[in-house]
Queue: 2 jobs
Job 1
Amino acid sequence: MKNPISIGLAAATCLSMVAALFMVFVYVPTEAEQGIVQRIFYFHLPCAWVAFLGFGIVALAGGLYLWLGHKVWDDLSYAAAELGMLFCTLVLVTGSIWAKPIWGVWWTWDSRLTTTFILWLLYGSYLLLRAFADDTDGIARFAAVLGIVGVLDIPIIIISVRLWRTIHPAVLLTRQGEHGLQDLRMVATLLVSLAAFTIMFVWLLWMRVATLRLRTRIVRLRRTLALRELAEAHR
Amino acid sequence: MDHLGYLFAAYSIIFLLIGLYVIFIGTRQARLEREVRRLESELRKNEPPLAPADNVEEIKTPGGV
């Protein structure tokens, strides 16, 4: 927490988040069809973006761990999975809150919602495995494979609105290939929110990896201490 | 203004969950840092005394001078 990089990232997160909130609640015009509730979109989509980013890092770091075997890649993978799960949960919750006034239901088994829920379940099982299994090399390798397999769901989520009949809006590019956001102020607000969430993600990832590195250090220190006590006992 | 409650709920949940996660990391990091300091001081206390020969480090210079 006292690390200057961590402090800098925290400050950048606060500033960018204040700017994003200002744009969402003051700057951007209210959408004509959905009204004020459409403003959920400006934080809903960045949550999805950082969730995908997190799971992408899980797969990448997992692959590097399988290849190189360094614990730091496993720590990065674990930290990114936790963050991906946090933001994937936020996507599902905010999406559900947005769906109620617009669709009239909290949840529907729409293709995008279902594939996102599958992603949440996949990484939920990844985190359960990490939480309840022993912290061994074998479990880390198994988790790395699970992380790589899980990421294959992301392209399916992205193209699901084009592949199957869906009621979920295709915001960035509609079925007709048009831009989903017609007003430039909406695009600007979305970009600022995306930047704010990306900075926050980097900050949280930095802190979480630092915590996991400390845990690894404690394991090593305990081992050294135990070996020393054993040597003392045999002397 | 009909759906202000939904908007408020969505943004509140986002900041609540992220805030709780930051608190979780912060407290865990503080606890682990305390544990590292405790173990390091314990290691220093239990450090075996060096044998007299170990205290003298052989100085090697290029060319064996």
Job 2
Amino acid sequence: MVSIRTVNLTKVFGDVVAVDHVSLEIRHGEFFTLLGPSGCGKTTFLRTIAGLEMADEGRIYFDDQDITDMPAHLRGTGMVFQNYALWPHMNVFDNIAYGLKIRKVPKEEIRRRVKEVLKLVKLEGMENRTPHQLSGGQQQRVALARALVINPRVLLFDEPLSNLDAKLRVEMRAELRRLQRELGITAIYVTHDQEEAMSISDRIAVMNRGRIMQVGTPKEIYKNPKNEFVAKFIGQGTFILGEVVTYGEELEVRLESGKVVKAVPSHPDVRLEVGDKALIMIRPESFTLEPGKGYNEFEVEVYHISFLGDSQMLQASNEVENFIIEVDPDLEINVGQKLKVYAPPKHTLAVKL
Amino acid sequence: MGQAAGLSKLLRKIRWEMDAFSWSQLIIVLASFTAFLIVPLGLVVVRSFYSSSGGFSFYWLQTILTDPFYFPLRLKLLNRFPFISLEGIRGSLYEVVKYQTAGGEETIVLLTGWDMGVIPNSLVVATFTTLFSTVLGFTLAFIFAKYRFPGSEVLRIVSLIPLLSTPFVGAIGLKKMIVADGVLNVLFYDMLHLLPFKIEITGLPAVILVQTLLFYPIVMLNSYTALISVDPTLEEQAINMGASGFRLFRTVTLPLATPGVEAGALLVFILSLEDLGTPIVFKGTTAEKVLTFQIFNRIFTPAGLISQEATTLAMILLVISGLVFVGVRRYVSLKKYAMLSKGGTWRPKRRKLSPVVTLLVYIFILGVLFFATLPHIGVTLLAFAKQWGPTLLPSSFTLDNFIAVLSDEEASRCIMNSLVYSSIATLFMVVLGVSAAYLVSRKKSLPGIGALDLLVTIPIAVPGIAVATGLFLTYLGTPLSPTISGAPLLIASYTVRKIPFTVRAVFSGLEQTDKTLDEVAWTVGASRTRTFFSIVMPMILLNVLAGGMLSFIYSMSEVSTGIVVGDANHRDAPMTWKMYDMLFHGLAGGTFQPAALGFLLMTLQFIFIVGANLLLRKRATALIGV
């Protein structure tokens, strides 16, 4: 179990800066996720940690050891790839035992440890299958077992669940987390799926164009986005452009429609000034149909209703702005209906632009 | 960032990518190619600019270009307009010979073609061979790719038979067919009376005919792969927008297939240019007046000297092939085959033909196949013939030719020599070829890897006779001298000349193997060396095997170096030299015994090529296509 630290890590492909001066600290035993749209550099970052790509600038530390120039095979990482990368010419046992054979572990112990790890990933008795005899989920478990069996210092996951179907993905998610926690191995996980990131991680780093946009717990990232990118990338919300008119004890923003709303800075680090452009963000579930003291009030007309079972999502507008509002699934409502909705100031976030 | 920073980054990159194992792979490849390809070819170029006293001079180049034997075309200024004088061109397209026979007067039309001098002849032959091969190859490919009719698969495979052709075999066989008292005249003049006179194709036209029939499958295979790799929805979209018939073909189908066709055509051009076997078989006619034959004839004097004239001719041949090769690289990346072999995942749409059109197609294809398989039929008949006068078939059959060949001490020694040299060369080719293919496939980001790729594919474009000349220039008088033993140079020459087959087969295997399979091995602790042997090699084993088999069989049938070295030292000569020797200096047996040798070689080639293709199955198209 190690902590991982990168300092100004940079990787350039031709004219593209895939990873741009990234400094991160990943703690002992932490489940850390890199989340971002495709092409944001998250996989490249992971591959650089694994030693599969050479860092063009910056340093990488495992605990206090500088491993920036260490070859991949000496780093002691266990990596699980998106395509599983099982060796087709070996059966399940040989795939998993490969790393142990390299470490010259005695035969008997190899047998025992492979058996153990297969049990851990719930594939007992599958030793003699070849990879193409396995389902996608099973292949994924073999890949995981192969990474786990060598007792890696760090586990690296490159979108490991993206080739599985939706139901299996949810199951595997929980299982990955359980295993990682039981074994206490530091893990870095790469995904473009924010729901997956939210449900699995201790902390998330949101990446865009090679840069880290925000690091925080899933809750922080959702509730307190630091900037426009994170606010729009994570979850849904109503976004309205405005200008700060009061900043001090209270924060007031004048929207383009002329309406003035009370708000709070989206993140404790966000500093605004009067005259700044700001983006007002309200999460769908922050809206109520009941007025409260000091609540911001909006009058909207519903133009689309999505019934989701446990809730209903309303898409509505007031001619200038569009709203996404979550309401009780039992509420009787029709397209074209006019509504008054309210948002408490503490959930009316002003994102700095 | 200054230059120094850029340089240190580059050095760091190289250190990162290259471990001791990669370095050793790179070094053995570079060392072998330097010693047996670069230096020899360099010497060919350098020596052709030596004067007899040793200094730099254009003497030989000038001598050759002003000698009407080599280059009779003259630029003349007349009325201030430059024009090319055709005075130097001799001969005519055909000659009519009449002679008396017992049954009256007989007329023979000899298709001889003009003699334009050695250098233009070579280019004209290559141009026509390319033109005919392309038309023939593409037409066949188009029919097979687009239409469905009974037996089309069988016919398609049969039409690839000329790929099995071994040196001399095709030409010997075909010669028996097209001479005045050959099978075709017997069939069409004497028996069927379809011709008003006998036709004999000889000289350069015969070379063009033989080469066309030998090389059209290369264009066909490339075109076929290109055509079936075209996504059918692209054509459907065009049809949807109102295109049909010839317009569809011209605007959509042809442009999409063009890279494949061009690649095949340019390869044929080079192969025609460097072909030595065919001109040798038609020795004694104008077929002699091509570059390869002239070099061969002059290269080595019994006194152990290399002719300067031959060296300069080799340089000219080298330059021409080099220019054509640059053309190939420019138009179509040689790597295209990797992409093409991945394509074709969809089922190509094939249209059914109406009965009348089917009949026409059959007539056309069977006609082509009749001519294309003539050499093989001819050589097989010759190999088993006891006597063969001016009749359709030999008058009696026998196995004596094989017995004679195999009991001939020199012949069996030459067969043994060929087997040994080719086996050793194959070992080298596998080691070097796998190394080169691995570096090219897996270290793409390293600067200079493109050059390595070029180095190991370029032997395709280097005429064998130029390599032979270079090897003689470099190693005469050294311990590797062919006058001491032919073995080292033959093995070296086979290795560098035939390595592209191994490299391509292995490279296509590597490209189809996901790089993450290597990477995951590193992450669990395997060094690059260990990964190479325990992960990469097992996965590409079939490709290595198939590539090795092809390299082996093409080594067995190598002509240029074989007969030059063989002439210098009969004891160590390979099989191809023996065939040459028997054809022209042989006493008894005439063409029967060389045909028997050819038949043996053809059989061996058949087994190996079919074997390699079975091993690779779908990937097989990667092997012949450029």
